[in-house]
């Protein structure tokens, strides 16, 4: 899977203000900014992202995905 394909899958299931991916085709690191994360704990945010992948983790299409998740306000404070 390419970074563009993975970005398309995540952004189709989760409205993202910012989505950056790095990886080697199996192991990925994502930085995701979404208003959908408002009021959500870290685990809940990760579940939202994993839900966009459907069974792709189980079938090893995406072997590993590490992520940092931010609300737009949290992202604005990163600078």
From TrEMBL:
Family annotation (InterPro entries): BolA, BolA-like_sf, BolA/IbaG_stress_morph_reg
UniProt protein name: BolA family protein
Organism: Comamonas terrae
Protein family according to the UniProt entry: Belongs to the BolA/IbaG family.
UniProt-listed SUPFAM superfamilies: BolA-like
């Amino acid at each position: 899977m390419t970074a563009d394909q993975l970005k398309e899958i995540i952004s189709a299931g989760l409205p993202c203000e910012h989505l950056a991916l790095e990886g080697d085709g199996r192991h990925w690191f994502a930085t995701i900014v979404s208003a959908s994360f408002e009021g959500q704990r870290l685990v809940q945010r990760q579940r939202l992202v994993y839900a966009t992948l459907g069974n792709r983790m189980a079938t090893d299409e995406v072997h590993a995905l590490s992520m940092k998740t931010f609300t737009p306000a949290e992202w604005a404070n990163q600078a």
